[in-house]
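User: Could you go from structure to sequence for me? I need the amino acid at each position, not a summary. Structure tokens:
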């Protein structure tokens, strides 16, 4: 890293804290300001992370030449408007997902980000997760043959740390769980399979009477190369928390258990298991050192993009592809049908 960059954080909630904590701990930036519509929260973040200023309006800080990087950790409906302001002022950006609440804004988000000299990184954090990167390498090396099926679940029971029910209700005012979290897993299956999703379908249910929308969804995905997969998500007071991942090939399968979900003793390591179809080949079980949401890894990747003018770890075309996948999947579920995803190969050259 050539210098210490001036950073502002917009959004002092659960995700904002995750973004700023390691940057602060490692003294890798000068935190100029913390901003939130809740002034008390912005002030508390400024105290904790030794920011020089705090406030409820981010726009005056975009005029400050000391500010070089903006972290957008707000609710989904504000992501695109804030990005436009940041780019207009020549700031580099880390933006939380999803990038927008509709396809038109998502297309414009990607168009602006790709055409601007400022660097933009979207928080598809599983691309920085070392366990996912290891599994991607194993699949590419043919360890389990040809990838045929991907099974993914990530459900949260409300009330657990970082997941209060009122936060889920606010998130669902912008988009359903499938869109908010599903962008990660539509991205993972395309990344691992090296092929685009071409059709989607699914089911949903409303598990809580006071939920504003259906808060349990399953997305079925069909890829151009024949790989298939599903993603299951629920935010509810009435569901168990799960984070199961299973990648099945023609010669075996790989399972991933995150450190926080392991039941075989306290550990800070993920478990990656390779089970082979050939019974003469012994299974491989490895404890793997990783960080679930490697926000610091994303920050370092943005710095590399700035200083060396390289592409980011998460191509913007892949960000758009995963977003449109979950938007069409949500539509397919609501309409009770299978939807073929339109060809937009002119926008998706860099999966």
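Assistant: Here is the amino acid at each position, in order:
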């Amino acid at each position: 890293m050539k210098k210490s960059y001036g950073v502002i954080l917009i959004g002092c909630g659960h995700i904002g804290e995750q973004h700023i904590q390691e940057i602060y701990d490692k003294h890798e930036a000068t935190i100029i300001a913390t901003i939130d519509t809740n002034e008390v929260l912005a002030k508390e973040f400024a105290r904790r992370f030794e920011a020089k200023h705090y406030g409820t309006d981010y726009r005056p800080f975009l005029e400050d030449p000391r500010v070089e990087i903006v972290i957008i950790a707000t609710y989904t409906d504000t992501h695109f408007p804030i990005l436009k302001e940041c780019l207009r002022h020549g700031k580099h950006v880390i933006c939380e997902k999803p990038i927008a609440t509709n396809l038109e804004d998502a297309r414009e988000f990607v168009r602006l980000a790709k055409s601007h000299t400022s660097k933009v990184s979207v928080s598809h954090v599983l691309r920085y997760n070392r366990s996912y990167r290891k599994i991607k390498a194993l699949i590419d090396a043919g360890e389990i043959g040809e990838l045929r099926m991907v099974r993914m679940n990530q459900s949260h029971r409300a009330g657990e740390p970082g997941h209060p029910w009122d936060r889920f209700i606010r998130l669902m005012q912008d988009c359903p769980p499938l869109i908010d979290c599903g962008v990660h897993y539509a991205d993972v299956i395309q990344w691992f399979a090296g092929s685009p999703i071409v059709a989607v379908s699914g089911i949903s249910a409303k598990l809580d009477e006071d939920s504003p929308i259906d808060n349990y969804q399953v997305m079925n995905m069909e890829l151009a190369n024949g790989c298939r997969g599903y993603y299951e998500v629920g935010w509810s007071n009435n569901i168990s928390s799960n984070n199961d991942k299973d990648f099945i090939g023609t010669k075996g399968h790989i399972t991933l258990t995150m450190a926080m979900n392991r039941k075989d003793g306290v550990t800070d390591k993920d478990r990656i298991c390779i089970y082979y179809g050939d019974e003469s080949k012994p299974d491989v079980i490895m404890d793997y050192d990783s960080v679930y949401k490697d926000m610091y890894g994303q920050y370092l990747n943005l710095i590399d993009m700035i200083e060396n003018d390289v592409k980011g770890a998460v191509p913007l075309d892949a960000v758009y592809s995963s977003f449109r996948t979950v938007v069409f999947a949500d539509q397919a579920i609501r309409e009770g049908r299978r939807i073929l995803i339109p060809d937009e190969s002119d926008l998706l050259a860099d999966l």
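One structural detail worth keeping in mind: The CA atoms of residues 275 and 283 lie 5 Å apart.
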